[in-house]
Amino acid sequence: MSEEFEVKGLHEEVLEGNEESNGFNGRLAVMTAIMATIGALLSYEASVTLGEAIILKNEASIKKTEASDQWNFYQAKGNKQNLAELAAKLTTGKDHDDSKNDILRYNIEKAEIKKKAEDLEKLSKEADEQSEHYMHYHHHWATGTTALQIAISLAAIALLTRRKWLQYGSLACALVGVGFGVFAWFGI
């Protein structure tokens, strides 16, 4: 005599539930798939904006270092100018005239170096501000992604417990996530 016993798991019971349950499960499955797709898009945008922010922050650091190098060069020219001024006071004749010419040349060189250093500092500041701008958007994208991940988790719990209010909670979290995505998309 051969008797067969069938052992069903929770997932089989959910799949073999009544019609009302199947409609609930189907809606949750579709809703979860949509949330996962939107979450993937938000996650991608979060990664892109983070990458841009990092690149711009690196650019700001490079420009700041270049500006610092120019200011050091400016200071070195100032020291040379000071030595030329001292030499002009201590010498006469041709050496005095050469020292005066050196003083004028160092003044012109310092002005050019100062302008270059200030331009580099400006570029550094602009890159830093752009980096902060991208980080702001990154936070919106990342918050939206997190809200959608929470929504997917709530949907899974709603599916297991068959609680409608969890389905609505999941939908609310998904809407919050999409809202953050919309804010980031429109630059708010």
Task: Report on the architecture of this protein.
With 188 residues, the chain is mainly α. It has one domain. It is 90% helix and 0% strand. It has 4 helices and no strands. The longest helix is centred in the first third of the chain and has 72 residues. It starts with 9 loop residues before the first helix and ends with a helix.
What descriptive keywords fit this protein?
188 residues, mainly alpha, 4 helices, 90% helix, 0% strand, rod-shaped
Task: Describe, in short, the structure shown.
The protein is built from four helices and no strands. With 188 residues, it is an all-alpha fold.
- N-to-C order of helices and strands: HHHH
- The percent of residues in helical segments reads over 70%
Segments where pLDDT lies below 50 for 5+ residues?
A: none
Overall body shape = rod-shaped
Mean pLDDT: 87
Radius of gyration: 34 Å
Structural class: mainly alpha
What profile does the largest beta sheet have?
A: none
What is the number of helices?
4
* Total count of strands: 0
Topology:
Elements: H1 10-15, H2 19-90, H3 93-161, H4 164-185
Helix pairs in contact: 2-3, 2-4, 3-4
